[in-house]
């Protein structure tokens, strides 16, 4: 990959590869070849080391970021166009206006009136291969809807990552247990003619016992994970299109089972790398990395960028973190089992935070808190916001090497409104 960096004496970089250089104001150009793509590189930071191991730190210059817009378009279970959801780096007012315009263009008002908020969904894309749908995403929780008894209605929502499979069913609050869930999951398979999946992802830690027990009785592995991107987006859409139009809808109701956001803990020793760097990759290259995950890397995870409908220019820089480790393959293997969902910078504590599973947050690394380093961290977060929350983690044997051992595409998403 082509990297941009102020040329520190301690960092020797290779010559440029074929993609050309990405100019940055106020920065000198140096390049390295990593998996054949251009990457904008900051100076590397050493990762935290086990006790007794010396560390060093460097300060970083900031890079201005040009805002870009991203549109998320969930798949539809019917010929009707569905409402889009937008993520923008612009002001919330401008973003709302843009979303309103998009909704009018995509879904006429008279079509929205056709939605029956009390109907349940049982849909399989006729073009989908049922045998290929081996992973489901699941939510089983109350909704901001009251039934005839004045009690909250619960709902099971099931889909796959491509939204080729979609299933919903309402339940009274006095029927919530693992047996009910087990039978409902079995009915998904029977109703749609698909095999039971190998794995089911879910994002509510409070439901782990019920979901794990129900899935276990069906021979399915339950995976706590916030990498339920399609499910989270669909829930947001259902809130606007379905729940808010239900006759029992209760406006202003808080989710019964809110997502956990615990204080970050110390990184386990087996997840330590040697050093890391803030980096950026053109959106066109991100697409290529995702498309080649199965061929190029043994470890990593992508996102369906076509389904998510990101409207970014190919040249838009997507921020990420590159990690160097002399134990790159074992490190990537351990990271692969964490269900990594996001990375963020805590500028107040000068720390890089890694989110995994449903309620795990690690202090992945600290850095020397200087004005320049803070400005660089803020610029990285701004780049992430400008790319609609899209970012990535790459693990390498060397930051100057010509390939990655692991590559994870990540996405910041707000919690669902239910």
Gyration radius, rounded: 23 Å
Class from helix and strand fractions: alpha/beta
- Described by the principal axes of the CA atoms, the overall outline is globular
Low-pLDDT segments, ≥5 res: 2-43, 48-76, 78-112
Mean pLDDT: 77
- End-to-end span in angstroms? 41 Å
Count of DSSP E strands?
18
β content, as a range?
25-35%
Q: Quickly count the helices.
A: 10
Largest sheet: 6 strands, mixed
Largest beta sheet: strand ordering = 1-11-13-17-18-12
* Helical fraction: 10-25%
Secondary-structure element series = EEEHHEEEEHEHEHEEHHEHEHEEEHEE
What's this, in brief?
This protein has 10 helices and 18 strands.
Structure description:
This protein is an alpha/beta fold and about 425 residues long. It has helices at about 90-105, 110, 180-190, 210-215, 230-240, 285-290, 295, 305-310, 330-335, 370-385, and strands at about 40-45, 70, 85-90, 120-125, 135-145, 150-160, 165-170, 200, 220-225, 265, 275-280, 300, 315-325, 340-345, 350-355, 360-365, 390-395, 405-410. The radius of gyration is 23 Å and the shape is globular. It contains ten helices and 18 strands. It is about 25% helix and about 25% strand. It has a six-stranded mixed β-sheet with strand order 1-11-13-17-18-12. A six-stranded mixed β-sheet has the order 4-7-6-5-8-9. Strand 14 (about 340-345) and strand 15 (about 350-355) form a beta hairpin.
Feature tags:
418 residues, alpha/beta, six-stranded mixed β-sheet, 18 strands, 24% helix, globular, disordered N terminus
């Amino acid at each position: 990959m082509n990297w941009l960096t102020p040329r520190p004496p301690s960092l020797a970089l290779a010559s440029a590869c074929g993609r050309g250089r990405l100019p940055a104001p106020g920065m000198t150009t140096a390049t390295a070849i990593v998996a054949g793509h251009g990457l904008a590189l900051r100076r590397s930071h050493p990762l935290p080391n086990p006790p007794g191991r010396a560390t060093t730190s460097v300060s970083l210059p900031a890079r201005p970021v040009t805002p870009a817009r991203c549109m998320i378009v969930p798949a539809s279970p019917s010929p009707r166009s569905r409402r889009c959801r937008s993520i923008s780096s612009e002001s919330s007012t401008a973003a709302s206006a843009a979303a309103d315009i998009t909704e009018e263009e995509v879904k006429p008002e008279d079509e929205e009136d056709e939605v029956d908020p009390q109907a349940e969904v049982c849909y399989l894309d006729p073009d989908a291969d049922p045998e290929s749908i081996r992973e489901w995403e699941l939510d089983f929780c109350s909704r901001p809807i009251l039934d005839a008894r004045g009690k909250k209605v619960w709902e099971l929502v099931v889909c796959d990552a491509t939204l080729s499979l979609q299933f919903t069913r309402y339940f009274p609050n006095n029927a919530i247990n693992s047996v009910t869930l087990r039978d409902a999951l079995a009915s998904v398979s029977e109703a749609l003619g698909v095999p039971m999946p190998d794995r089911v992802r879910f994002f509510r830690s409070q439901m782990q016992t019920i979901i794990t027990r129900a899935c276990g009785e069906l021979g399915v592995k339950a995976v706590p994970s916030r990498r339920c991107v399609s499910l989270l987006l669909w829930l947001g859409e259902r809130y606007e299109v379905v729940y808010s139009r239900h006759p029992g809808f209760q406006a202003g109701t808080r989710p019964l089972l809110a997502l956990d956001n615990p204080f970050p803990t110390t990184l386990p020793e087996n997840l330590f790398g040697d050093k890391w760097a803030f980096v950026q990759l053109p959106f066109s290259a991100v697409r290529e990395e995702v498309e080649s995950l199965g061929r190029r890397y043994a470890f990593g995870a992508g996102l369906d960028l076509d389904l998510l409908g990101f409207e970014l220019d190919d040249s838009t820089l997507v921020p990420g973190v590159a990690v160097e480790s002399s134990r790159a393959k074992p490190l990537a293997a351990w990271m692969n089992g964490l269900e990594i969902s996001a990375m963020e910078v805590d500028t107040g504590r000068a720390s890089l935070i890694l989110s995994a599973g449903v309620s795990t947050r690690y202090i992945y690394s600290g850095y020397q808190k200087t004005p320049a380093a803070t400005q660089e961290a803020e610029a990285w977060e701004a780049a992430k916001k400008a790319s609609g929350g899209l970012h990535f983690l790459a693990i390498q044997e060397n930051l100057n090497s010509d390939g990655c051992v692991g590559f994870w595409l990540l996405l910041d998403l707000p919690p669902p409104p239910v």
